[in-house]
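#help-structures
NK: newbie question, is this the right format to request a structure? protein is Phenol hydroxylase
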Amino acid sequence: MTIEIKTATIQPRRQTYANVARRLGADKPASRYDESMFDLQATGEFHYRPTWAPDFELFDARRTAIVLEDWHVLRDPRQFYYGTYTIARSRMMEAAEKAFAYAERRGHLNGLAEGWARLVHHYLLPLRHYEWGANMNNCNITDIGFGSTITEATMFATMDRLGIAQVISRIGLLLDGGTGGSLTAAKAAWLNHPSWQGLRHAIEDLLVEADWFEVFVAQNLVMDGLIYPLVYRAFDDAGQVHGGAALSPLTEFMLDWFDETARWVDAVVGAAAKESPANALHLSRWAAAWTGRLREALQPLAQDVLGDGAAGILDALAADLATRCRKIGLEA
């Protein structure tokens, strides 16, 4: 007896889900990112208006001055959905874990010069509260923003900010021998030290800003665009002659994250600016206003760490940010 096995090919009626097929066509295979993002925004059939904002629907595109014909133009060039996001962050965190294990095993942070160790406590550890504020601001965008393209990505950003706050906390615990005293002092500095009050004030004002796209520009473009190069590049460079090289591997996560996230932020703001001159005007005005405010707020902290070179470094960082803004269509 012989058995003949035949194979049959079944052609699928379409290559993807209906929400993607409506945009790209049924015969074009879609990426997992497209499938997880297109047209998932609730747009109608709401039962009640929110009691805290009765002028708007629960999800309402009018909550920002930015106007887009299709909110899905705010694509993420990283194409993050759950799978790609968790894989990317797992790889970054694996490298960070190795750096922490190596520093702890060798006691590298004990080599910081005494004066520079005090400065590290002063300029780095209070940033865990800045990251918490950034987490809350991106939570707010996720809550009241419009379009699954942007709110999915800001949800991932909220987790990033908590992760970075935890990395900073672990550095504090390495510095104080695991007592936690450095973190208590960092909270007191964030709340009371004059050098931190300008940044703290700006973060707290953003927490109650009504226009979620302005929050996006202020937090993710301007604040991060000045603070990350200042702290993790300029301050780190200044510490190299004080034994600070041991700290650099522990903050590499932040630099890698900033370089990657900046591509997403620029893509979002650039797409919105390209849509209309009115959008570009709003975005340019927000970027200019928050750059001026942050430039002033960061001056005392930069002075504490860099001394007479602080003003020059801040001017250079503001110029770099202005160049970045011009590249994405803003007037800066």
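mod (FA): yep, format's fine, and the tokens are attached above. The longest helix spans residues 277-306.
NK: thank you!
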